[in-house]
Amino acid sequence: MKAFCLTLVATGFLCGCKGMRHADSIPIIDTHIHLYDTTRPEGLPWPPPSDTVLYRPILPSDFDQVCEANQVTATVIVEASEWITDNQWVLDLVQHDPDRYIGLVGSLEIGTPQFSQHLKALSKDERYVGIRLRERPGGEHFFESEDVWKDLTLLSEMDQTLDVLMFQFSLEEVDMIAKRLPRLRILINHVAGADIEGEKADPAWVAAVENVAQNPNVHCKISGLFQQSHRQPSPKDVAFYRPQLDVLWAAFGEDRLIYGSNWPVTMRGGTYQEYLSIIQAYFADKPRKVQEKFFYQNALQFYGLPPLRR
User: Fold this and answer.
1) Among 193, 209, 224, 262, which residue has the least CB neighbours within 10 Å?
2) Which among 174, 288, 169, 193 is positioned nearest to 247, based on CA atoms?
3) What pLDDT was estimated at residue 100?
């Protein structure tokens, strides 16, 4: 095997435990996947049994196949469970392969008495890179809570990151957090909540994007394109998504856009290859250095991860 690998290197390919890829290919870090096991005795809070696409075990072996088929180098997992113990469950699930499963964005409820304790314990594992702002207990009064701001401040002080799922929050609220905590690294998920209809971007959304992007600590994840198209199957032509992608490119530029998929939710719209191909097509006319930033370098910098071992 070693001799075979040396031959591949000499002919322009790299070889290792993850298979092989061309030496000139750009590494890809998918910063938004979910892993879970529907067969666990205690069950799980998401997805529901009624979801015929997603309700089945989605485990590392499944994503390994995606990586091999699409030359995805590594991933940052985003925890989708509200159960505190599932943060450690995922870390344990992927501990066998730290080169591929390089980070976890956890799920902890901000503004609770146990938040500090859980964050400090979990972040002892360097793969635990931050949390996602997902639920909104307290509704419209969420940001009136001093405990919420205390926990957000702790995130910043500990150099942990904040992903924001836009379903429960607005870009104006992200702007407020960014201004109050300018050292907190914030990553807006799923193309900043854009509604993608194959038409010119909504002017109100454009204005909100341009405003929040003025904060240098705010980044945007090009994830969930299929989801934001609200179509099953989703369109496969990059032109359908270009109006919103152009807005995000103009606002955040080459240093603050990060690649993510939202797999396995992508399966509602199409295959992983179809999803990745759309995004690769959008960036195809941009310089290689820009593609390198988007597909892996910006992710490493944002999440504070070490260089890829490849």
Assistant:
1) 193
2) 193
3) 98
- For residue 159 the two structure tokens come to 């150099």
Fold that domain 26-303 belongs to in CATH: TIM Barrel (3.20.20)
Tell me phi and psi for residue 195, to 5 degrees.
-95, 115
State whether the Cα torsion 2-310-103-264 is positive or negative.
negative
Q: Tell me which residue of 243, 272, 271, 246 sits closest to 257, measured CA to CA.
A: 246
Q: How many CB atoms lie within 10 A of CB 67?
A: 19
Q: What is the DSSP letter of 38?
A: T
C-beta separation of 294 from 254 below 8 A? yes
Structure tokens at 65: 């196949």
Task: Give the per-residue SS3 of 262-309.
Answer: CECHHHHCCCHHHHHHHHHHHHCCCCHHHHHHHHHHHHHHHHCCCCCC
Determine which of 3-12, 25-34, 124-133, 185-194 has the lowest per-residue pLDDT on average.
3-12
Q: Has this prediction a pTM greater than 0.70?
A: yes
Contact 189, 223 (CB under 8 A): yes
260: left (phi over 0), alpha (psi -120 to 50) or beta: beta
Which residues on neighbouring strands pair with residue 14, listed in sequence order?
21
DSSP state string for 176-188: HHHHH-TTS-EEE
Q: Give the HSE-up count for residue 4: Cα atoms under 13 Å, Cβ half-sphere.
A: 6
Q: Give dist(CA 17, CA 42) in Å, integer.
A: 34
Mean pLDDT, the chain, as a whole number?
Answer: 93
Every domain of the chain and the residues it spans: 26-303
Q: What is the DSSP string of 112-164?
A: STTHHHHHHHHTTSTTEEEEEE---TTGGGGGG-HHHHHHHHHHHHTT-EEEE
> What does the pLDDT average to over 238-266?
98
**Spatial contact of 271 and 308, defined as CB atoms under 8 Å apart:** no
